[in-house]
Design a protein that fits this description.
The protein is an alpha/beta fold and 233 residues long. Helix content is 35%, strand content 19%. The chain contains seven helices and twelve strands. The chain has a five-stranded mixed sheet with strand order 2-1-6-10-9, with helices on both faces. A three-stranded mixed sheet has the order 5-7-8. Strand 7 and strand 8 form a beta hairpin. The chain is globular, with a radius of gyration of 17 Å. The protein starts with 16 loop residues before the first strand and ends with a helix.
Length: 233
């Protein structure tokens, strides 16, 4: 799902990453996400130019007035609105959450990339569930939900794979002008032995992509090149 494009060439691509998580996300899962982001930044060669800020279960001053969540002031507010927009009680509308991230006032005062980690299941209008959604140049929502029945080590490894995949999308993968080894499957994806392959069968596909990653196949050479190019503009 790609509802938005890059936020514009006038905004530097060397801007901070703000990560926050829904209450109840396991600390080791949040840490896996943060570790994965650092790996992608290192591969892109920009680990010293893009700072990562872990806000955890973020709640700003005055985030709750009585029983009412104040606008834009906590991760709880984002999650509550994504749940309210959902067609059912057990999933979050991931696309709606991304729209909130795009429209948040903090983007005006301090442009940044967003990462939201949730243990709730996600869906979007064109798919009944998804493990993650991302928008080029903006941010991503990552769900651990579909991996929770796996053993602890495999959970962590699949979350790392999923995070690297979604952050890859945030950083311009797959570019719209690419024609080789690419397919359109809920957005453009790589067809090489690469972390940017599409994974529709969960967890089976993500287990396979994870096995490939652990065997040394992270980003293929084309995706590595495109990842570096994103930060050259």
């Amino acid at each position: 799902m790609r509802i938005l494009s890059d936020t514009g060439p006038q905004i530097s691509r060397f801007r901070p990453i703000y990560a926050m998580c829904e209450e109840g996300v396991e600390p080791e899962h949040l840490q896996a996400v943060l570790d994965s982001v650092q790996v992608v930044l290192r591969i892109a060669g920009v680990e010293r130019r893009v700072e990562v800020h872990n806000f955890g279960v973020w709640r700003g001053p005055g985030w709750l007035e009585g029983n009412t969540l104040t606008n834009w002031n906590s991760v709880d507010w984002y999650v509550a609105h994504a749940r309210q927009a959902s067609r059912n009680d057990h999933q979050l509308h991931g696309g709606h959450l991304l729209k909130l991230l795009y429209n948040e006032p903090w983007q005006e005062t301090t442009p940044h990339y967003d990462i939201v980690v949730t243990h709730s299941d996600l869906y979007d209008d064109d798919c009944r569930f998804c493990v993650g959604l991302a928008v080029h140049g903006l941010g991503t929502v990552i769900s651990t939900n579909r991996f929770l029945n796996l053993d602890a080590r495999t959970q962590r490894e699949c979350i790392i794979t999923e995070t690297m995949h979604e952050v890859g999308h945030v950083f311009g993968l797959i570019p719209s002008n690419r024609t080789d080894n690419v397919e359109m499957s809920l957005g453009l994806h790589c067809t090489n032995k690469c972390i940017m392959r599409q994974g529709l069968n969960v967890p089976h596909d993500w287990l396979k992509i994870t096995d490939n990653r652990l065997a040394g196949h992270e980003f293929c050479s084309t995706c590595r090149s495109d990842l570096a190019k994103f930060f050259c503009h």
